[in-house]
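Design job #97: recover the sequence.
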């Protein structure tokens, strides 16, 4: 299968990511109540950029990035001064969502690899996430560390986590390099 990963630009792409947001975070995860129009806008949409994965023109994967406080992770931290104490430019990564029919290593690698390349190219040093508790092992494989206990949000529980890009595991850098060679992409 061929996937295209890019920043969302068109109104159709934004509508597609809002629909995917609804399918994953309202219907599957239960963080939000389902809506009658099956569209779930992101409350941080005005200050976020969205990496999307397209298949046959449809948005089948997404993640949001933003670097302007307030960060959504602040709602999940016992001590928000932690963010002030962190050195370096911070990028919050949110709303990682992949359509269940397209959940495979390639889509995940393209979204995360593109996001990490973009973060490094733009001079970010720390990635912030709120990881779903059931998927902590996946986040830890990427080098993310919990900085607080799980916090409920709807039916889901999220763990505030961070990753210093300079401390990203070597195997993740090698995976990104393999992905870059295989797909012909590059910074």
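Job complete. Output follows.
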């Amino acid at each position: 299968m061929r996937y295209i990963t890019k920043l969302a630009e068109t109104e159709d792409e934004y509508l597609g990511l809002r629909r995917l947001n609804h399918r994953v975070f309202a219907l599957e995860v239960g963080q939000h109540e389902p809506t009658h129009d099956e569209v779930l806008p992101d409350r941080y949409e005005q200050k976020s950029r969205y990496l999307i994965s397209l298949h046959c023109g449809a948005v089948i994967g997404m993640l949001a990035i933003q670097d302007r406080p307030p960060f959504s992770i602040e709602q999940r931290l016992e001590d928000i001064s932690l963010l002030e104490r962190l050195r370096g430019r911070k990028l919050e990564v949110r709303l990682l969502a992949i359509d269940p029919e397209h959940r495979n290593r390639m889509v995940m690698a393209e979204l995360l690899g593109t996001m990490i390349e973009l973060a490094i190219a733009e001079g970010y040093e720390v990635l912030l996430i709120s990881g779903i508790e059931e998927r902590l092992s996946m986040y830890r494989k990427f080098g993310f560390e919990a900085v607080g206990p799980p916090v409920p949000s709807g039916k889901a529980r999220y763990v505030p986590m961070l990753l210093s890009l300079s401390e990203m595991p070597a195997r993740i850098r090698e995976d990104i390099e393999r992905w870059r060679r295989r797909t012909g992409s590059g910074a």
